[in-house]
Amino acid sequence: MNRVRILGNRARLQLSKLPHPGPRRTFSSTIPHLVNEEPSLYGEGGFHPISLGDTFDAGRYEVLRKLGYGQYSTVWLARDFKHQRFVAIKALRADRYGKSERDILSKISDISASSNHEGRHFILQILRRFNHVGPNGGHTFFVFDVLGHHLYFQCSKYEDGRLPVQVVKTIARQLLLGLDFLHRECNIVHTDIHPKNVLLELKDPNTAISKHLSEVSPRTDTKSGETFPLREVIETPLIAEMEAPCLKIIDFGAAKWRGKNQTYQIQPVSLRAPEVIIGAPWDTGVDIWTLGCLIVEFVQGIVLFLGEASKDGTWTVDDDRLAKIIEVFGPFPPELLERGTRTADFFDENGDLRRIPKLKPTTLENLLNGPKKPFSKPDDMPEADVPLFINFIRGMLAIDPERRSSAADLVKHEWLKR
């Protein structure tokens, strides 16, 4: 039967009380895999080993704390002695040359310098870059402003992961403006929009960081006999309590230039657009699909299309995700299926799913304005706003990307104005 993952308590709830014929389709109760910074990633071609107090770029930057890490980089809080300020340094793995990310960040900076587009304020701009050679190879380092919490951290502070509706409108407007700037002025598709890649700006970074350094001891791991820094978070107010919150879209390591007939796999799996799943050409609409899913997540506390393979091998994760999309929005348009290089992997000649042929349809209205949680509308959303919200989301989650609304159109939507 259909189920959704609840962001706050990870409970598993039914979308439909009628089971599918045959094996049951359910969502996984496990949290999506997080990349662990394993010692093996510090070998040849991997991360550069960094300790607190290390200096880089001829002594210009001193490492103060660890801020985070991912599959391809580590991020550090540092002091810039030249400009007497705090910065964040992103150190790429030695096997990640960073040319594509460097070119994209440079393009964003160049366009921003001459643009009046409001969306440029919601993109994290690069300050500078430098190279460093270490025991594991040569590394590219990027320097940025230091930011506060990412949105998943903020969501965790609210009941059921539901953010206040007015806060979500602020988030939606700023991210749409940022995406419109990337899409139309920079010709860039981010491809990796998710809550950990959207961070809050620190209103007084020098004060906030100085306070953190003076009051919070460095987090370290000494279990192995050596001291390894652990990531820390600079204290940030709740977004609903901020007078004028400003968000920044970060991490352009997976960003792509706009181009024709790009069909390779992109995006976080649970937020992957339909055209990407079936191998059809994709463009800026993939970012809009992802943001639509995230806005539902922020308002309702649910992840719409988190698929799971059947235990007996009857269907795959992608089969399950496609089935959930169809149950909410109806069948895939034939013209979209014709464009997919992987369509035959999932659909038969009639446009039906090969491994999950019988579905139990629901509606977007049932998910966003149902009789009880998590599908009931938030208490702080007026009844008169519900149809506008549903229309707003429907424009972002059209199955066919050619019918999906653009960021430029969505930012003018009536729901954001109320």
UniProtKB/TrEMBL annotation:
Residues covered by the Protein kinase domain: 61-416
UniProt keywords, alphabetically: ATP-binding, Kinase, Nucleotide-binding, Serine/threonine-protein kinase, Transferase
The keyword Nucleotide-binding is assigned to this record: yes
Presence of the UniProt keyword tRNA-binding in the record: no
Source superkingdom: Eukaryota
GO molecular function: ATP binding; protein serine/threonine kinase activity
Reaction equation(s) it catalyzes: L-threonyl-[protein] + ATP = O-phospho-L-threonyl-[protein] + ADP + H(+); L-seryl-[protein] + ATP = O-phospho-L-seryl-[protein] + ADP + H(+)
Enzyme Commission number(s) from the entry: 2.7.11.1
Pfam family membership, one: Pkinase
Single Gene Ontology BP annotation: spliceosomal complex assembly
Binding-site residues for ATP, renumbered to this chain: 90
Record's protein name: non-specific serine/threonine protein kinase
Organism this protein belongs to: Helicocarpus griseus UAMH5409
